[in-house]
Amino acid sequence: MPHSHYVPHLMGTATIAPTGEFEAGSFAEFTLSYTAGYFGIDDTGSLKIVHRFASDMGKPQFNDPKGWNYTTVEASNGAILQIEYDGKRNIRPWDKTLFIRVVRGFLKEGDQIIVRFGDRRSGSRGMRVQTFCEPTFEFKVLVDAFAAYEYVEIENSPTISIVSGPPVNYKAVLPSLWKTGEPFKFRFKGEDKWGNPSDKLSANFQLKSNLPVGGLPDTIKFERGAFTATVDNLVVLAPGDLSIDVLLDGVLVASSNPCRIAAEVPMHQYWADLHGQSEETIGTNSAADLIEFARDRAFLDVMCHQGNDFQITSEFWNELNTLTARYNKDGEFIIFPGYEWSGNTSLGGDRNVMYLKEGRTIYRSSHALLSDLSDVQNDANDAPSLFEFLKKEDSIVFAHVGGRYADIALSHNAQIERSVEVHSDWGTFEWLLEDAFMQGYRVGILANSDGHKGRQGASHPGASLFGAYGGLSCLVAKELTRASIAECLRSRHHYATTGCRAFLDLRVRFDKPAAILSDDPNLGGPITRENRLEAPMGAVVEYDGDTAWLDFEILTDGPIECIEVRNLMEVVERIVPYSQKDLGNRIRIMWEGSEYRGRGRQTVWDGSATLTGNTFLNPTPINFWNLDKTLNHPSASKLEWQSLTTGGFSGVDVTLEKKYDGQLQISTPLVSENLQVKDIGNVPIEFSAGGINRRVRIYRLPDANVHKRMKAKVRVPLHTGKDNAIYLRATTETGFYVFSSPVYIVRKGA
Prior knowledge:
It is built from five helices and 57 strands. By secondary structure, the protein is mainly beta. The strands form twelve sheets. The protein has a 15-stranded mixed β-sheet that branches. Strands 28, 29, 30, 31, 32 and 33 form a six-stranded mixed β-sheet that branches. A hairpin with a 3-residue loop joins strand 52 (685-688) and strand 53. The longest helix has 14 residues, at 314-327. It starts with 12 loop residues before the first strand and ends with a strand.
């Protein structure tokens, strides 16, 4: 919904100093000078300087002249001003508002209001610039000249450019599964400390492979100004598990994700992030920029733009469809037209809608931020209405937890809504999967980013309320086309990670033939049955045996901490790649969970760990994505941290000087406990903290875990009287989850 358009050329002007480029996450002082226009600003009139919801620029504060983000405001004519900052005082997406009201006096034409963001005159470090790149970061200025609380946007609000810093981390990416003899790509990039791909790099890197790779050069040259480097037409002739190391001056800086090379590859593995937004709704940078980032800097195979429907104008919907048609290319990059149906929680909550072709109708949850009501008859104000509309569309829907959460108990259509998204930048939400199981739904598991910062497919959360790195989904499909990817999604033939690229091969095997169904019989359509001794991930099976076997192999780029084999939410077996005798002096202190399902789910874990009779060595933070949240080691026997979780987990990996000596004291706002070091073993000691799966877990690990590959076959007892949903969740020591989609088994005659 636009602000007033009444004579903006008479509402004044604004400038910013300095201008130019600023490194993401750096500190600076900005002086914004607003000069009143013809009408001035009347007594009790006001000015707003607003920033996007997605921005994590420092929050202005007015009380500590030496502190970060100290901000001062003054009127050139001495008028008395009321100053407030509110993160929700303007129309979305320009929510974040510095509010300035003239309470004594008024402004005439030519008078000025001077705002110093990060005023350094009394010792402040300055204003912390947002942590992600945006070439046109805007200080949008809105004027209420008539004291009517009706705001007009000035004609040209000032902007600065936010750019990446120097690289501190490097990422090397291979496909996860490839056929011998077929050419593939190796891709490489550096990221700054906030996760932005960096172009501040000029170096020759050495490449080393564990397998013979035809076409692989000894070095790769990275030119300053380039964000990525690619080596094309690589070939491996013999089966094996490939990894490529990248070295700089002989020092390892990155290892690729593992790539399984096989003689036969009937089904490929394609990496996707099906959920992100651009500046046309609540995100950052244009939709075209977002698509190109996903393809060229996050190295995705598949994506979908998912803007909030109540912000998508008809013009932007048409533009999105034009973009998806332009960028979609079979065999190279697949993008679907789509949108996030953003219904109020009481009416069904967030759902993600993907169409298989352009030119389809958008069925919005509302026109809340749209002034053009010419197509309001197509609104689907609640989830049942959405599903009713979509019955005539070739579409795929999955349930999402964002600001609003999908209430799939309230509404669900199994023909259309085939999956649930258990992870995004908002956090990890296994309770959504549990909701589906409790309702008897047969859903696949996806993870995406819902990124708002222009980094779809490599979505660091920055320094805002997002508490997790964005997820990825691996789509197991015959080929890289819309039709094949849609078949994969509808058959639940995919797995999800909280951000890593892992290879997973999983199937359920049977002691005697089972009936593999062509589709879920709950959908009411025609069903065919094929008797087989194994079922792929996502299948629905009829079987009259008492047990089945979960057979899997997983390759990860970080050591595997444990694997849970599950039936529904029950852990049938917990597998670790080492034995009790391998445990060493290394322990983990982990905290996880969320406050509740809605927006206020953040749980603060700021706390400490203290040792009596022992010493901490080499503490390492796990999933401390926000660099403002730190792990400190103030003394040999004490650790301190600032941390929050939004459903996922964070923690500390630390070595003890003495293996079994002493007492450990944990102190957080939710858990304060003492335990003996000698009691810490492989099985986690858990302390519950209410909320949704909030707890602290403490356990012991080997001093070095080299296991990045696990293969096992686990017997799973089958329930009677309800579905069996057999799947796994793997955890890596580097802080990631890998979820397979379930195989659903119905006991015949049960």
